[in-house]
Amino acid sequence: MLHDKDFEYFDKMAHWSFDGYDCHTECLTDWDLYKILNGLATEYSRILDLGTGGGEKLLANFPECKEITGTDYSPNMIETARRNLEKSGRKNITFRVMDNLNMDVPEDYYDIVVARHTCIDAGQIFRCLKPGGHLLLRGVDKYDCWGLKIHLGYGQDFNSPVPISIEDYENILKAGFSDVELVPIHEREYYKDAQTFKAFLSVVPILDHMPEDSLLEEYIEKNTYAGRVLLIRRCYGITARKP
Q1: Cα-atom radius of gyration of the chain, to the nearest Å?
Q2: Per-residue pLDDT of the chain (243 residues; tens, 9 = 90+)
């Protein structure tokens, strides 16, 4: 099961959106999860989306196909996703509550499994995919916002001996997947001002707690360009296939 603090965080954030923050993103890596997904899917595909949240990314970026199931551990997130689905008018999509580490799905059923910024059990994903099916994963680990974490001396997974990206990669290989590729993803995020940047940090899990004002002000001063605050993001993408 997921940790209680993870459940409490995402349940609390069920009605929150990044749209409220004025942020410009520059991706420095040519790796696009949705482009890969749409290139693999056909009208006959069955797709499972793990950690779907409020369903916004699924509804905006997933292709029209035979069946899409979005799951999340938070009942409040799933309620939000169902409301968003009703507004969208899209068909062949369902949302349900499920723990990624205790998956209740059929074996050899899905053509594609997508996991975005969520924990996974590679073995359970392997079992639910059809032979020839694909896993697409995007996540963050200790090196995300590394400059900020180094400056403060703490942050999400700061003391983890092995980055989650490497753990995921190795576990996916052990589960029996082939054609496994791990790609580092680098992005620059520019926040319109210090106030917006601080507001963003206060609601995301990048930091365990907000730092002393003086430390944060030092980081902002060193990383402000043309009035915008820069945050370097480091994510990772993994693609794999079930033989």
Answers
A1: 18
A2: 344 545 554 555 444 455 556 799 999 999 999 999 999 999 999 999 999 999 999 999 999 999 999 999 999 999 999 999 999 999 999 999 999 999 999 999 999 999 999 999 999 999 999 999 999 999 998 999 999 999 999 999 999 999 999 999 999 999 999 999 999 999 999 999 999 999 999 888 899 899 999 999 999 999 999 999 999 999 999 999 999
Considering the segment(s) 4-141+159-185+235-241 as one domain, its CATH architecture is 3-Layer(aba) Sandwich (3.40)
How many other C-beta atoms are found inside a 10 Å radius of the C-beta of residue 101? 12
* Dist CA 238 CA 123 (whole Å): 15
Listed in sequence order, the residues at least 6 apart from 190 whose beta carbon sits closer than 8 Å to its beta carbon are 23, 24, 25, 26, 225, 228, 229, 230, 231
DSSP secondary structure letter of residue 19: G
The residue extents of the domains of the chain are 4-141+159-185+235-241
Residue 93 bridge partners (DSSP): 68
Amino acid at 79: E
d(CA 241, CA 134): 4
